[in-house]
Write a structure and sequence with these properties.
By secondary structure, the protein is an all-alpha fold. It is built from 8 helices and no strands. The protein has a domain at 106-206. 67% of the residues lie in helices and 0% in strands. Helix 5 (111-121) packs across helix 7 (146-181), helix 6 (130-143) runs antiparallel to helix 7 and helix 7 packs across helix 8.
């Protein structure tokens, strides 16, 4: 009888130990949740991590421009003044070539004159050959040959007539476009015509401000 009780007690102990072992081996919901949270934290940390670049991040105060020390003598002060003036002239020249309003001369300022420049620059003008023909006339008259002088004068006269006709056509286009785009303009048309003529007889590379349109571009 005592042997039977001991066997039952032993069986109960073994079943208890087996159940405890099984419960310990199976993961609980809390363990799985904590594992998922830990994995997500590691993922966020890896995304937010920025590898070091080998040097410290500069402070805002370090990025600011430090004030220039005062000149040690008069010669250095004069040198700095010359460098500053040279830089300002270069900036003004670059702005004038680009057609920036604040750098333009009074004769070039205004939207109407910018339109005139575009009208002239978008076409080939006969006036660019005007001074070249004058140079040919000088060479022809300097030879002393009557035939050469006559031909040189004829060439110059033909270029002058063509320049006049081309200028009239340009002025008509200037008048029409200015009236269409600037109906309330107070600029005198004659000043715009003269401005167009002077630009038309100037070589394209020497025009100031520089041409921003190519031949054939719409105005």
């Amino acid at each position: 009888m005592s042997t039977l009780f001991r066997r039952k007690s032993a069986d109960l102990v073994e079943e208890s130990v087996a159940s405890v072992t099984t419960d310990a081996d199976e993961p609980t919901d809390a363990d799985e949740t904590s594992k998922v949270d830990a994995d997500s934290d590691v993922t966020r940390a890896s995304k937010a991590y920025t590898p070091s670049k080998g040097k410290a991040t500069p402070k805002r105060s370090d990025g600011r421009r430090k004030p220039e020390p005062p000149p040690a003598n008069r010669r250095e002060a004069y040198k700095r003044m010359r460098e500053k003036q040279r830089a300002e002239r270069s900036e003004a020249m670059a702005g004038m070539k680009a057609g920036e309003e604040r750098y333009l001369l009074p004769r070039d300022k205004g939207a109407e004159r910018a339109l005139v420049r575009d009208i002239v620059d978008s076409r080939r003008t006969v006036g660019t050959w005007f001074f070249g023909s004058a140079f040919v006339v000088l060479l022809g008259t300097g030879t002393g040959n009557p035939t050469m002088v006559m031909y040189a004068q004829l060439i110059w006269f033909a270029i002058a007539v063509l320049t006049l006709v081309d200028t009239i056509l340009i002025c008509r286009k200037v008048s029409r476009l200015v009236r269409e785009r600037f109906p309330k303009s107070t600029v005198k048309p004659r000043s715009l015509y003269f401005y167009a003529f002077m630009r038309a007889i100037t070589f394209r590379r020497l025009r100031m401000p520089q041409a921003r349109l190519k031949f054939g571009d719409p105005v």
